[in-house]
Design a protein that fits this description.
This protein is mainly beta. It is 6% helix and 59% strand.
Protein backbone atom coordinates (compact mmCIF):
# COMPACT_ATOMS: atom_id res chain seq x y z
CA UNK A 1 0.00 0.00 0.00
CA UNK A 2 1.40 3.35 -1.04
CA UNK A 3 1.54 6.17 1.49
CA UNK A 4 1.86 9.86 0.72
CA UNK A 5 5.39 9.89 2.18
CA UNK A 6 6.43 7.08 -0.21
CA UNK A 7 5.17 9.14 -3.16
CA UNK A 8 7.42 11.99 -2.01
CA UNK A 9 10.36 9.59 -1.73
CA UNK A 10 9.74 8.41 -5.30
CA UNK A 11 9.82 12.02 -6.49
CA UNK A 12 13.02 12.84 -4.66
CA UNK A 13 14.79 9.70 -5.88
CA UNK A 14 13.98 10.18 -9.54
CA UNK A 15 14.96 13.84 -9.55
CA UNK A 16 17.84 13.39 -7.07
CA UNK A 17 16.73 16.36 -4.99
CA UNK A 18 19.21 17.02 -2.16
CA UNK A 19 16.51 17.13 0.52
CA UNK A 20 18.72 15.28 2.99
CA UNK A 21 16.69 16.29 5.99
CA UNK A 22 13.47 14.84 4.63
CA UNK A 23 15.07 11.64 3.32
CA UNK A 24 16.76 11.01 6.64
CA UNK A 25 13.35 10.48 8.24
CA UNK A 26 12.58 7.51 5.97
CA UNK A 27 13.67 3.97 6.71
CA UNK A 28 15.79 2.46 3.91
CA UNK A 29 13.52 0.76 1.40
CA UNK A 30 14.29 -0.97 -1.86
CA UNK A 31 12.03 0.65 -4.45
CA UNK A 32 11.34 -0.52 -7.99
CA UNK A 33 12.55 1.64 -10.89
CA UNK A 34 10.58 4.88 -11.14
CA UNK A 35 9.39 6.55 -14.36
CA UNK A 36 7.85 9.96 -14.94
CA UNK A 37 6.56 10.15 -18.52
CA UNK A 38 3.64 7.71 -18.12
CA UNK A 39 1.67 10.03 -15.80
CA UNK A 40 3.92 13.15 -15.66
CA UNK A 41 4.56 12.23 -12.01
CA UNK A 42 7.04 9.75 -10.50
CA UNK A 43 5.56 6.26 -10.53
CA UNK A 44 7.00 2.77 -9.96
CA UNK A 45 7.38 1.11 -13.35
CA UNK A 46 5.51 -1.99 -12.19
CA UNK A 47 2.37 0.13 -11.65
CA UNK A 48 2.29 1.80 -15.09
CA UNK A 49 -0.69 0.82 -17.28
CA UNK A 50 0.98 1.60 -20.63
CA UNK A 51 4.05 0.05 -22.24
CA UNK A 52 7.21 1.95 -21.39
CA UNK A 53 10.92 1.27 -21.88
CA UNK A 54 13.70 2.97 -19.95
CA UNK A 55 17.25 3.32 -21.29
CA UNK A 56 19.51 4.16 -18.37
CA UNK A 57 22.69 6.21 -18.17
CA UNK A 58 24.60 3.03 -17.35
CA UNK A 59 23.38 1.34 -20.54
CA UNK A 60 24.26 4.36 -22.69
CA UNK A 61 27.79 4.54 -21.28
CA UNK A 62 28.37 0.77 -21.40
CA UNK A 63 27.43 0.59 -25.10
CA UNK A 64 29.13 3.84 -26.10
CA UNK A 65 26.21 5.16 -28.12
CA UNK A 66 26.58 8.75 -29.29
CA UNK A 67 23.17 9.96 -30.53
CA UNK A 68 19.52 9.39 -29.67
CA UNK A 69 18.74 7.37 -32.81
CA UNK A 70 21.54 4.90 -32.04
CA UNK A 71 20.18 4.25 -28.53
CA UNK A 72 16.56 3.70 -29.61
CA UNK A 73 17.19 1.18 -32.40
CA UNK A 74 16.81 -1.79 -30.04
CA UNK A 75 13.70 -0.51 -28.23
CA UNK A 76 10.64 -2.70 -28.98
CA UNK A 77 8.04 -1.05 -31.19
CA UNK A 78 10.45 1.61 -32.47
CA UNK A 79 11.80 1.80 -36.04
CA UNK A 80 14.75 4.13 -36.65
CA UNK A 81 15.42 5.25 -40.22
CA UNK A 82 18.51 7.34 -40.98
CA UNK A 83 19.38 8.61 -44.46
CA UNK A 84 23.14 8.05 -44.55
CA UNK A 85 25.78 8.13 -41.83
CA UNK A 86 26.14 10.42 -38.80
CA UNK A 87 24.34 13.72 -39.38
CA UNK A 88 21.83 12.17 -41.77
CA UNK A 89 18.12 12.71 -41.12
CA UNK A 90 17.02 10.20 -38.46
CA UNK A 91 13.30 9.45 -38.03
CA UNK A 92 11.59 7.68 -35.13
CA UNK A 93 8.56 5.55 -36.06
CA UNK A 94 6.63 4.08 -33.13
CA UNK A 95 4.15 1.24 -33.65
CA UNK A 96 3.75 1.95 -37.35
CA UNK A 97 3.13 5.69 -37.00
CA UNK A 98 5.00 8.47 -38.76
CA UNK A 99 7.93 10.34 -37.26
CA UNK A 100 5.74 13.42 -36.78
CA UNK A 101 3.42 11.29 -34.62
CA UNK A 102 6.07 11.07 -31.88
CA UNK A 103 6.37 13.87 -29.33
CA UNK A 104 9.95 14.33 -28.14
CA UNK A 105 10.70 16.12 -24.85
CA UNK A 106 13.95 17.07 -23.14
CA UNK A 107 13.31 17.71 -19.44
CA UNK A 108 9.75 18.68 -20.32
CA UNK A 109 10.70 20.96 -23.24
CA UNK A 110 8.99 20.15 -26.55
CA UNK A 111 11.66 19.87 -29.23
CA UNK A 112 9.64 18.98 -32.33
CA UNK A 113 10.56 21.58 -34.99
CA UNK A 114 7.61 23.88 -35.88
CA UNK A 115 9.04 24.43 -39.39
CA UNK A 116 9.54 20.79 -40.34
CA UNK A 117 6.89 19.96 -42.94
CA UNK A 118 5.13 17.67 -40.44
CA UNK A 119 6.51 19.23 -37.22
CA UNK A 120 8.81 16.30 -36.43
CA UNK A 121 12.16 15.84 -34.68
CA UNK A 122 15.54 14.78 -36.10
CA UNK A 123 16.85 12.19 -33.62
CA UNK A 124 20.30 12.05 -35.22
CA UNK A 125 21.39 15.46 -33.92
CA UNK A 126 20.97 14.96 -30.16
CA UNK A 127 24.23 14.17 -28.35
CA UNK A 128 24.00 12.02 -25.21
CA UNK A 129 26.88 13.24 -23.03
CA UNK A 130 24.70 14.69 -20.26
CA UNK A 131 21.77 12.27 -20.48
CA UNK A 132 20.60 10.51 -17.30
CA UNK A 133 17.93 8.29 -18.86
CA UNK A 134 15.48 8.04 -21.77
CA UNK A 135 11.85 6.95 -21.39
CA UNK A 136 9.95 5.63 -24.42
CA UNK A 137 6.18 5.57 -23.82
CA UNK A 138 4.22 3.80 -26.55
CA UNK A 139 0.64 4.39 -27.69
CA UNK A 140 -1.41 7.63 -28.01
CA UNK A 141 -0.73 10.03 -25.12
CA UNK A 142 -2.58 13.19 -26.17
CA UNK A 143 -4.81 13.02 -23.07
CA UNK A 144 -1.78 14.20 -21.11
CA UNK A 145 0.59 15.73 -23.67
CA UNK A 146 -1.67 17.11 -26.40
CA UNK A 147 -0.72 17.43 -30.07
CA UNK A 148 1.96 15.23 -31.70
CA UNK A 149 1.66 12.37 -29.16
CA UNK A 150 -0.33 10.18 -31.59
CA UNK A 151 1.80 7.04 -31.42
CA UNK A 152 4.11 7.70 -28.48
CA UNK A 153 6.29 10.01 -26.40
CA UNK A 154 10.07 9.98 -26.04
CA UNK A 155 11.35 11.96 -23.06
CA UNK A 156 15.03 12.58 -22.35
CA UNK A 157 16.09 13.45 -18.80
CA UNK A 158 19.44 15.15 -18.25
CA UNK A 159 21.74 14.64 -15.28
CA UNK A 160 21.20 16.60 -12.12
CA UNK A 161 24.12 17.48 -9.88
CA UNK A 162 24.41 15.11 -6.93
CA UNK A 163 27.01 14.68 -4.21
CA UNK A 164 30.38 16.44 -3.91
CA UNK A 165 31.26 18.59 -6.94
CA UNK A 166 33.21 16.57 -9.50
CA UNK A 167 34.51 16.93 -13.04
CA UNK A 168 34.80 14.48 -15.91
CA UNK A 169 36.59 14.58 -19.26
CA UNK A 170 36.40 12.06 -22.09
CA UNK A 171 38.17 11.52 -25.42
CA UNK A 172 37.24 8.96 -28.11
CA UNK A 173 38.70 8.31 -31.56
CA UNK A 174 37.96 5.73 -34.23
CA UNK A 175 36.82 4.78 -37.71
CA UNK A 176 35.91 7.37 -40.34
CA UNK A 177 38.30 9.77 -38.56
CA UNK A 178 35.77 10.20 -35.79
CA UNK A 179 36.75 12.37 -32.82
CA UNK A 180 34.59 12.91 -29.77
CA UNK A 181 35.52 15.18 -26.86
CA UNK A 182 33.48 16.07 -23.79
CA UNK A 183 33.85 17.76 -20.42
CA UNK A 184 31.39 18.21 -17.59
CA UNK A 185 31.14 19.36 -14.01
CA UNK A 186 28.35 18.54 -11.57
CA UNK A 187 27.55 18.36 -7.91
CA UNK A 188 25.57 19.78 -5.04
CA UNK A 189 26.40 22.34 -2.38
CA UNK A 190 24.07 23.70 0.30
CA UNK A 191 20.80 24.79 -1.36
CA UNK A 192 22.20 24.42 -4.90
CA UNK A 193 22.75 21.57 -7.34
CA UNK A 194 24.36 22.13 -10.73
CA UNK A 195 25.43 20.33 -13.89
CA UNK A 196 27.21 21.72 -16.96
CA UNK A 197 28.54 19.85 -19.99
CA UNK A 198 30.30 20.74 -23.24
CA UNK A 199 30.87 18.24 -26.04
CA UNK A 200 32.22 18.12 -29.57
CA UNK A 201 31.75 15.39 -32.18
CA UNK A 202 33.37 15.36 -35.62
CA UNK A 203 33.63 12.68 -38.30
CA UNK A 204 34.52 12.43 -41.98
CA UNK A 205 31.67 9.97 -42.28
CA UNK A 206 30.54 7.95 -45.28
CA UNK A 207 28.76 8.87 -48.48
CA UNK A 208 25.16 9.79 -47.70
CA UNK A 209 24.09 8.37 -51.08
CA UNK A 210 24.96 4.66 -51.15
CA UNK A 211 28.53 3.87 -52.24
CA UNK A 212 27.22 0.71 -53.95
CA UNK A 213 25.53 3.03 -56.47
CA UNK A 214 28.83 4.68 -57.41
CA UNK A 215 28.75 7.54 -54.89
CA UNK A 216 32.28 7.92 -53.51
CA UNK A 217 32.36 11.40 -51.93
CA UNK A 218 32.29 11.19 -48.11
CA UNK A 219 29.83 13.34 -46.18
CA UNK A 220 31.11 14.55 -42.83
CA UNK A 221 29.37 15.82 -39.75
CA UNK A 222 30.22 17.95 -36.73
CA UNK A 223 28.26 18.89 -33.63
CA UNK A 224 29.10 21.18 -30.71
CA UNK A 225 26.69 20.99 -27.75
CA UNK A 226 26.36 22.91 -24.49
CA UNK A 227 23.91 21.87 -21.77
CA UNK A 228 23.27 22.63 -18.14
CA UNK A 229 20.80 22.70 -15.30
CA UNK A 230 20.61 24.50 -11.96
CA UNK A 231 18.42 23.80 -8.97
CA UNK A 232 18.13 26.27 -6.11
CA UNK A 233 16.41 25.08 -2.91
CA UNK A 234 15.62 27.99 -0.57
CA UNK A 235 13.64 25.55 1.60
CA UNK A 236 13.26 21.80 1.84
CA UNK A 237 9.91 21.93 0.01
CA UNK A 238 10.79 24.46 -2.71
CA UNK A 239 12.90 24.44 -5.84
CA UNK A 240 13.68 27.08 -8.44
CA UNK A 241 15.12 25.38 -11.53
CA UNK A 242 16.72 26.38 -14.81
CA UNK A 243 17.48 23.98 -17.68
CA UNK A 244 19.20 25.01 -20.91
CA UNK A 245 20.66 23.36 -23.99
CA UNK A 246 22.12 24.55 -27.29
CA UNK A 247 23.91 22.95 -30.19
CA UNK A 248 25.37 23.85 -33.57
CA UNK A 249 25.51 21.00 -36.11
CA UNK A 250 26.74 20.92 -39.71
CA UNK A 251 25.73 17.94 -41.85
CA UNK A 252 27.17 17.30 -45.30
CA UNK A 253 24.46 15.87 -47.53
CA UNK A 254 23.87 14.49 -51.01
CA UNK A 255 21.15 15.52 -53.45
CA UNK A 256 19.28 12.22 -53.17
CA UNK A 257 19.79 8.51 -52.59
CA UNK A 258 20.80 6.22 -55.43
CA UNK A 259 22.97 6.56 -58.55
CA UNK A 260 24.20 10.11 -59.22
CA UNK A 261 23.19 11.40 -55.80
CA UNK A 262 26.67 12.64 -54.83
CA UNK A 263 27.11 16.35 -54.18
CA UNK A 264 30.44 17.69 -52.80
CA UNK A 265 29.19 20.92 -51.22
CA UNK A 266 25.61 20.41 -50.04
CA UNK A 267 25.38 21.27 -46.31
CA UNK A 268 22.68 21.65 -43.69
CA UNK A 269 23.45 23.79 -40.63
CA UNK A 270 21.13 23.24 -37.67
CA UNK A 271 21.12 25.41 -34.55
CA UNK A 272 18.83 24.75 -31.63
CA UNK A 273 18.46 26.56 -28.30
CA UNK A 274 16.24 25.33 -25.46
CA UNK A 275 15.52 26.78 -22.04
CA UNK A 276 13.03 26.02 -19.28
CA UNK A 277 12.53 27.72 -15.93
CA UNK A 278 10.28 26.26 -13.25
CA UNK A 279 9.11 26.70 -9.67
CA UNK A 280 8.20 23.65 -7.54
CA UNK A 281 6.64 23.82 -4.10
CA UNK A 282 4.96 21.41 -1.69
CA UNK A 283 1.96 22.65 0.33
CA UNK A 284 0.00 21.12 3.19
CA UNK A 285 2.61 18.52 4.19
CA UNK A 286 3.01 17.20 0.69
CA UNK A 287 -0.68 16.97 -0.25
CA UNK A 288 -0.54 19.65 -2.97
CA UNK A 289 2.39 19.94 -5.35
CA UNK A 290 2.05 22.73 -7.95
CA UNK A 291 4.64 23.36 -10.66
CA UNK A 292 4.78 26.57 -12.66
CA UNK A 293 7.04 26.55 -15.73
CA UNK A 294 7.97 28.53 -18.82
CA UNK A 295 9.82 27.00 -21.77
CA UNK A 296 11.22 28.31 -25.04
CA UNK A 297 12.68 26.46 -28.03
CA UNK A 298 14.38 28.16 -30.98
CA UNK A 299 15.01 26.20 -34.21
CA UNK A 300 17.17 27.37 -37.11
CA UNK A 301 18.07 25.44 -40.26
CA UNK A 302 20.11 26.70 -43.21
CA UNK A 303 20.53 24.81 -46.50
CA UNK A 304 23.50 25.76 -48.67
CA UNK A 305 24.31 24.11 -52.00
CA UNK A 306 26.49 26.12 -54.38
CA UNK A 307 27.29 25.11 -57.94
CA UNK A 308 30.19 22.72 -58.52
CA UNK A 309 31.83 21.08 -61.56
CA UNK A 310 29.44 18.11 -61.38
CA UNK A 311 26.39 20.38 -60.99
CA UNK A 312 27.23 23.64 -62.82
CA UNK A 313 23.58 24.73 -63.04
CA UNK A 314 22.31 23.58 -59.65
CA UNK A 315 22.16 25.80 -56.60
CA UNK A 316 19.99 26.05 -53.48
CA UNK A 317 19.83 28.48 -50.58
CA UNK A 318 17.24 28.09 -47.82
CA UNK A 319 16.56 29.42 -44.35
CA UNK A 320 13.99 27.98 -41.93
CA UNK A 321 13.17 29.62 -38.60
CA UNK A 322 10.79 28.35 -35.94
CA UNK A 323 10.20 28.92 -32.25
CA UNK A 324 7.84 27.73 -29.55
CA UNK A 325 6.80 29.28 -26.23
CA UNK A 326 4.97 27.31 -23.58
CA UNK A 327 3.59 28.33 -20.18
CA UNK A 328 2.31 25.53 -17.94
CA UNK A 329 0.75 25.22 -14.51
CA UNK A 330 0.39 21.66 -13.18
CA UNK A 331 -1.07 20.66 -9.82
CA UNK A 332 -0.60 17.23 -8.25
CA UNK A 333 -3.04 16.49 -5.41
CA UNK A 334 -2.26 13.49 -3.16
CA UNK A 335 -5.60 12.39 -1.72
CA UNK A 336 -5.84 9.76 0.99
CA UNK A 337 -2.65 7.90 0.13
CA UNK A 338 -4.22 6.02 -2.81
CA UNK A 339 -5.34 8.78 -5.17
CA UNK A 340 -3.16 11.15 -7.15
CA UNK A 341 -5.14 13.76 -9.08
CA UNK A 342 -3.35 15.92 -11.64
CA UNK A 343 -4.95 19.11 -12.97
CA UNK A 344 -3.20 21.54 -15.28
CA UNK A 345 -3.42 24.19 -17.91
CA UNK A 346 -1.05 25.20 -20.74
CA UNK A 347 -0.60 28.03 -23.20
CA UNK A 348 1.50 27.33 -26.31
CA UNK A 349 2.50 29.68 -29.10
CA UNK A 350 4.50 28.48 -32.10
CA UNK A 351 5.67 30.57 -35.03
CA UNK A 352 7.79 30.07 -38.10
CA UNK A 353 8.97 31.45 -41.41
CA UNK A 354 11.14 30.27 -44.29
CA UNK A 355 12.66 31.34 -47.57
CA UNK A 356 14.09 28.99 -50.17
CA UNK A 357 15.47 29.55 -53.67
CA UNK A 358 16.83 26.86 -56.00
CA UNK A 359 18.12 26.96 -59.56
CA UNK A 360 18.50 23.89 -61.76
CA UNK A 361 18.16 22.74 -65.36
CA UNK A 362 14.41 22.68 -64.75
CA UNK A 363 14.38 26.43 -64.01
CA UNK A 364 14.19 28.67 -60.96
CA UNK A 365 12.07 27.84 -57.94
CA UNK A 366 11.32 30.33 -55.17
CA UNK A 367 9.34 29.74 -52.01
CA UNK A 368 8.78 32.40 -49.37
CA UNK A 369 6.78 31.54 -46.28
CA UNK A 370 5.98 34.70 -44.29
CA UNK A 371 5.95 34.42 -40.53
CA UNK A 372 2.84 32.70 -39.20
CA UNK A 373 1.74 31.89 -35.66
CA UNK A 374 -0.52 29.28 -34.10
CA UNK A 375 -1.80 29.42 -30.50
CA UNK A 376 -3.12 26.49 -28.48
CA UNK A 377 -4.78 26.73 -25.08
CA UNK A 378 -5.20 23.53 -23.09
CA UNK A 379 -6.56 22.08 -19.89
CA UNK A 380 -6.16 18.52 -18.61
CA UNK A 381 -7.25 16.23 -15.79
CA UNK A 382 -5.92 12.85 -14.69
CA UNK A 383 -6.73 10.52 -11.79
CA UNK A 384 -4.23 7.86 -10.76
CA UNK A 385 -5.48 5.31 -8.22
CA UNK A 386 -3.52 2.43 -6.68
CA UNK A 387 -4.43 0.01 -3.89
CA UNK A 388 -3.19 -3.50 -3.04
CA UNK A 389 -1.92 -4.46 -6.48
CA UNK A 390 -4.77 -2.81 -8.41
CA UNK A 391 -4.18 0.44 -10.26
CA UNK A 392 -6.21 2.57 -12.64
CA UNK A 393 -5.54 5.74 -14.58
CA UNK A 394 -8.08 7.90 -16.40
CA UNK A 395 -7.62 11.31 -17.97
CA UNK A 396 -8.85 13.80 -20.51
CA UNK A 397 -7.44 16.88 -22.19
CA UNK A 398 -9.11 19.75 -23.99
CA UNK A 399 -7.12 21.69 -26.62
CA UNK A 400 -8.31 24.84 -28.36
CA UNK A 401 -6.32 25.68 -31.52
CA UNK A 402 -6.84 29.13 -33.03
CA UNK A 403 -7.17 27.62 -36.51
CA UNK A 404 -9.07 24.30 -36.48
CA UNK A 405 -10.93 24.78 -33.20
CA UNK A 406 -11.32 22.40 -30.28
CA UNK A 407 -10.33 18.79 -29.72
CA UNK A 408 -10.69 16.50 -26.70
CA UNK A 409 -8.47 13.47 -26.05
CA UNK A 410 -9.06 10.61 -23.63
CA UNK A 411 -7.10 7.83 -21.93
CA UNK A 412 -7.98 5.04 -19.51
CA UNK A 413 -6.11 2.01 -18.27
CA UNK A 414 -5.84 -0.49 -15.46
CA UNK A 415 -3.33 -2.92 -14.01
CA UNK A 416 -3.55 -5.76 -11.51
CA UNK A 417 -0.71 -7.67 -9.87
CA UNK A 418 -1.03 -11.12 -8.30
CA UNK A 419 1.57 -10.97 -5.57
CA UNK A 420 1.61 -14.72 -4.92
CA UNK A 421 2.80 -15.51 -8.46
CA UNK A 422 4.42 -12.14 -9.31
CA UNK A 423 2.13 -11.83 -12.34
CA UNK A 424 0.90 -8.47 -13.62
CA UNK A 425 -1.87 -7.76 -16.14
CA UNK A 426 -2.45 -4.37 -17.75
CA UNK A 427 -4.65 -2.81 -20.42
CA UNK A 428 -4.95 0.68 -21.88
CA UNK A 429 -7.18 2.56 -24.30
CA UNK A 430 -6.46 6.05 -25.57
CA UNK A 431 -6.88 8.61 -28.33
CA UNK A 432 -4.39 10.98 -29.92
CA UNK A 433 -4.35 13.92 -32.28
CA UNK A 434 -1.94 16.09 -34.18
CA UNK A 435 -2.58 19.69 -35.17
CA UNK A 436 -1.64 20.57 -38.77
CA UNK A 437 1.82 22.11 -38.98
CA UNK A 438 2.35 25.74 -39.89
CA UNK A 439 3.64 24.67 -43.31
CA UNK A 440 0.61 22.45 -43.92
CA UNK A 441 -1.74 25.27 -42.95
CA UNK A 442 -0.21 28.41 -44.42
CA UNK A 443 2.34 27.62 -47.14
CA UNK A 444 1.52 27.93 -50.84
CA UNK A 445 0.78 24.19 -50.70
CA UNK A 446 -1.22 24.42 -47.48
CA UNK A 447 -4.89 24.56 -46.61
CA UNK A 448 -6.13 26.59 -43.59
CA UNK A 449 -9.22 24.35 -43.38
CA UNK A 450 -7.26 21.18 -42.57
CA UNK A 451 -8.55 19.04 -39.72
CA UNK A 452 -6.23 17.53 -37.11
CA UNK A 453 -4.95 14.01 -37.61
CA UNK A 454 -6.41 11.49 -35.16
CA UNK A 455 -5.51 8.12 -33.65
CA UNK A 456 -7.15 5.58 -31.39
CA UNK A 457 -5.48 2.59 -29.78
CA UNK A 458 -5.86 -0.21 -27.29
CA UNK A 459 -3.31 -2.59 -25.86
CA UNK A 460 -3.19 -5.45 -23.38
CA UNK A 461 -0.17 -7.02 -21.75
CA UNK A 462 1.10 -9.48 -19.18
CA UNK A 463 4.36 -9.51 -17.20
CA UNK A 464 5.66 -12.52 -15.32
CA UNK A 465 8.69 -12.78 -13.03
CA UNK A 466 10.30 -15.92 -11.64
CA UNK A 467 12.99 -16.80 -9.14
CA UNK A 468 12.89 -13.50 -7.26
CA UNK A 469 13.17 -11.43 -10.47
CA UNK A 470 16.10 -13.39 -11.86
CA UNK A 471 13.94 -14.30 -14.87
CA UNK A 472 11.17 -12.20 -16.40
CA UNK A 473 8.89 -12.15 -19.45
CA UNK A 474 6.55 -9.56 -20.93
CA UNK A 475 4.03 -9.74 -23.78
CA UNK A 476 1.96 -6.89 -25.25
CA UNK A 477 -0.59 -6.86 -28.08
CA UNK A 478 -1.68 -3.54 -29.60
CA UNK A 479 -3.92 -2.09 -32.31
CA UNK A 480 -3.61 1.49 -33.52
CA UNK A 481 -5.88 3.27 -36.00
CA UNK A 482 -4.91 6.52 -37.75
CA UNK A 483 -7.54 8.77 -39.36
CA UNK A 484 -7.55 12.01 -41.37
CA UNK A 485 -3.82 11.75 -42.08
CA UNK A 486 -2.45 14.77 -43.91
CA UNK A 487 -0.71 14.00 -47.21
CA UNK A 488 0.34 15.99 -50.23
CA UNK A 489 -2.20 15.58 -53.04
CA UNK A 490 -0.44 15.67 -56.42
CA UNK A 491 -3.76 16.28 -58.19
CA UNK A 492 -4.48 19.51 -56.30
CA UNK A 493 -0.91 20.50 -55.28
CA UNK A 494 -2.22 20.91 -51.75
CA UNK A 495 -1.97 19.18 -48.37
CA UNK A 496 -5.25 17.42 -47.58
CA UNK A 497 -6.78 15.00 -45.06
CA UNK A 498 -6.85 12.09 -47.49
CA UNK A 499 -5.53 8.93 -45.87
CA UNK A 500 -5.78 6.53 -42.97
CA UNK A 501 -3.80 3.59 -41.69
CA UNK A 502 -4.06 0.64 -39.31
CA UNK A 503 -1.25 -0.88 -37.30
CA UNK A 504 -1.32 -3.96 -35.09
CA UNK A 505 1.33 -6.13 -33.57
CA UNK A 506 3.14 -7.83 -30.70
CA UNK A 507 5.99 -6.77 -28.43
CA UNK A 508 7.78 -9.46 -26.44
CA UNK A 509 10.61 -9.20 -23.96
CA UNK A 510 12.64 -11.51 -21.74
CA UNK A 511 15.31 -10.70 -19.17
CA UNK A 512 17.50 -12.94 -17.08
CA UNK A 513 20.41 -12.56 -14.69
CA UNK A 514 21.02 -16.08 -13.37
CA UNK A 515 24.16 -14.91 -11.59
CA UNK A 516 25.01 -11.38 -10.50
CA UNK A 517 27.76 -10.69 -13.10
CA UNK A 518 25.60 -11.82 -16.06
CA UNK A 519 22.50 -10.22 -17.60
CA UNK A 520 20.77 -11.38 -20.77
CA UNK A 521 17.97 -9.61 -22.63
CA UNK A 522 15.83 -10.58 -25.63
CA UNK A 523 13.14 -8.58 -27.44
CA UNK A 524 10.90 -9.23 -30.43
CA UNK A 525 8.55 -6.84 -32.24
CA UNK A 526 6.04 -7.77 -34.94
CA UNK A 527 4.20 -4.86 -36.59
CA UNK A 528 1.76 -4.96 -39.50
CA UNK A 529 1.08 -1.38 -40.62
CA UNK A 530 -1.01 -0.84 -43.76
CA UNK A 531 -2.63 1.97 -45.71
CA UNK A 532 -6.40 1.67 -45.29
CA UNK A 533 -7.18 2.64 -48.87
CA UNK A 534 -4.60 0.62 -50.82
CA UNK A 535 -3.94 -2.16 -48.34
CA UNK A 536 -0.20 -1.84 -48.99
CA UNK A 537 2.35 -1.97 -46.15
CA UNK A 538 3.51 1.44 -44.93
CA UNK A 539 7.05 2.12 -46.09
CA UNK A 540 10.12 1.79 -43.84
CA UNK A 541 8.29 -0.17 -41.12
CA UNK A 542 10.05 -3.38 -40.16
CA UNK A 543 7.56 -6.20 -39.95
CA UNK A 544 9.81 -8.16 -37.58
CA UNK A 545 12.61 -6.95 -35.35
CA UNK A 546 14.73 -8.94 -32.89
CA UNK A 547 17.37 -7.83 -30.44
CA UNK A 548 19.60 -9.70 -28.02
CA UNK A 549 21.96 -8.31 -25.41
CA UNK A 550 24.47 -9.90 -23.07
CA UNK A 551 26.13 -7.90 -20.30
CA UNK A 552 28.92 -9.62 -18.37
CA UNK A 553 30.98 -8.27 -15.48
CA UNK A 554 33.61 -10.96 -14.86
CA UNK A 555 35.37 -8.54 -12.53
CA UNK A 556 34.12 -5.45 -10.76
CA UNK A 557 36.33 -3.22 -12.93
CA UNK A 558 35.54 -4.90 -16.26
CA UNK A 559 32.29 -4.74 -18.26
CA UNK A 560 31.54 -6.46 -21.59
CA UNK A 561 28.38 -5.68 -23.54
CA UNK A 562 27.36 -7.67 -26.63
CA UNK A 563 24.39 -6.46 -28.66
CA UNK A 564 22.75 -7.96 -31.76
CA UNK A 565 19.89 -6.44 -33.79
CA UNK A 566 17.96 -8.06 -36.64
CA UNK A 567 15.58 -5.99 -38.79
CA UNK A 568 13.27 -7.77 -41.23
CA UNK A 569 12.31 -6.97 -44.80
CA UNK A 570 10.65 -3.59 -45.36
CA UNK A 571 9.02 -1.74 -48.23
CA UNK A 572 10.34 1.62 -49.38
CA UNK A 573 9.97 4.01 -52.32
CA UNK A 574 12.47 4.97 -54.96
CA UNK A 575 11.64 8.66 -54.79
CA UNK A 576 13.36 9.38 -58.11
CA UNK A 577 10.93 7.09 -59.99
CA UNK A 578 8.06 6.59 -57.54
CA UNK A 579 8.28 2.78 -57.70
CA UNK A 580 7.94 0.61 -54.60
CA UNK A 581 11.02 -1.41 -53.63
CA UNK A 582 11.93 -4.01 -51.00
CA UNK A 583 14.77 -3.52 -48.54
CA UNK A 584 16.62 -6.68 -47.54
CA UNK A 585 16.70 -7.81 -43.90
CA UNK A 586 19.93 -7.26 -42.00
CA UNK A 587 21.66 -8.18 -38.76
CA UNK A 588 24.06 -5.92 -36.86
CA UNK A 589 26.35 -7.03 -34.04
CA UNK A 590 28.22 -4.71 -31.71
CA UNK A 591 30.59 -5.24 -28.81
CA UNK A 592 31.71 -2.77 -26.13
CA UNK A 593 34.37 -3.29 -23.44
CA UNK A 594 34.84 -0.91 -20.51
CA UNK A 595 37.77 -1.33 -18.12
CA UNK A 596 38.21 0.86 -15.04
CA UNK A 597 41.99 0.71 -14.81
CA UNK A 598 42.01 3.08 -11.82
CA UNK A 599 39.15 4.38 -9.66
CA UNK A 600 39.18 7.65 -11.61
CA UNK A 601 40.26 6.32 -15.04
CA UNK A 602 38.32 4.22 -17.54
CA UNK A 603 39.31 2.79 -20.94
CA UNK A 604 36.72 1.78 -23.52
CA UNK A 605 36.81 -0.20 -26.77
CA UNK A 606 33.80 -0.48 -29.05
CA UNK A 607 33.03 -2.23 -32.32
CA UNK A 608 29.94 -1.50 -34.43
CA UNK A 609 28.65 -3.73 -37.23
CA UNK A 610 31.65 -5.95 -36.53
CA UNK A 611 30.70 -8.45 -39.26
CA UNK A 612 30.52 -5.63 -41.84
CA UNK A 613 26.89 -6.17 -42.87
CA UNK A 614 25.91 -4.32 -46.08
CA UNK A 615 22.46 -2.82 -45.49
CA UNK A 616 20.12 0.12 -46.06
CA UNK A 617 17.71 1.79 -43.65
CA UNK A 618 16.36 3.97 -46.47
CA UNK A 619 16.50 3.06 -50.16
CA UNK A 620 19.51 4.49 -51.99
CA UNK A 621 21.21 5.80 -48.84
CA UNK A 622 24.38 4.43 -47.28
CA UNK A 623 24.87 2.98 -43.81
CA UNK A 624 28.13 2.62 -41.85
CA UNK A 625 30.10 -0.58 -42.27
CA UNK A 626 32.47 -2.17 -39.80
CA UNK A 627 33.89 0.38 -37.37
CA UNK A 628 35.96 0.46 -34.18
CA UNK A 629 36.50 3.13 -31.52
CA UNK A 630 38.68 3.60 -28.44
CA UNK A 631 38.24 6.06 -25.60
CA UNK A 632 39.53 7.21 -22.25
CA UNK A 633 37.74 9.11 -19.48
CA UNK A 634 38.87 10.65 -16.19
CA UNK A 635 36.88 11.79 -13.18
CA UNK A 636 38.23 14.20 -10.58
CA UNK A 637 36.97 16.15 -7.55
CA UNK A 638 36.53 19.90 -7.72
CA UNK A 639 38.37 21.30 -4.71
CA UNK A 640 38.00 24.79 -3.37
CA UNK A 641 41.17 26.86 -3.31
CA UNK A 642 42.47 27.80 0.09
Amino acid sequence: METRSQWIVYLLLIFHLPFHGLLAQEEPVELPPVVVTATATPKPIDEVVSTITVVTREEIEARGKETLDEVLREVPGVDVVRTGGPGGRASLLIRGGRDEHVLVLIDGIEVNDPMEFGRSFDAGLLALDDIDRIEVLRGPQSALYGSDAMSGVVQIFTRRGLGPPTGRVQLDYGSFETLRESAEISGAIPKLDFSLSLSSFETQGISSADEDDGNKERDGYRNVSLAGRLGYHPAVDTELGLIFRAFDAVSELDNFGGPGGDDPNYTLTTRRSLVRAFLDHWFYKGRWHPTLSAAYADHQRDLDNDTDPAHPQDREDGQYRGDLWKLAWRNDLYLGGHNLVTIGTEYEEESGKSEDESISSFGTFQSKFPEKTAITRSGFFQEDFHLRGFGAVAGARWDSHDRFGEHTSYRAGATYKIEATDTRFRATWGTGFKAPSLFQLYSSYGDPSLDPEKSESWEAGIEQNFLQNKLGFSLTYFELIFQDLIDYNLATNRYQNISGATSRGWELGAQSHPIEPLRVGLTYTSVEARDEETGQPLIRRSGDKYSASVEWNPFRVLNLDLLALHVGERDDLDFTSGRRVHLHPYTLVGLAVNWRVRPAWKLSLRGENIFNEDYEEAYGFGAPGQSFYAGISHEFPLRRKG
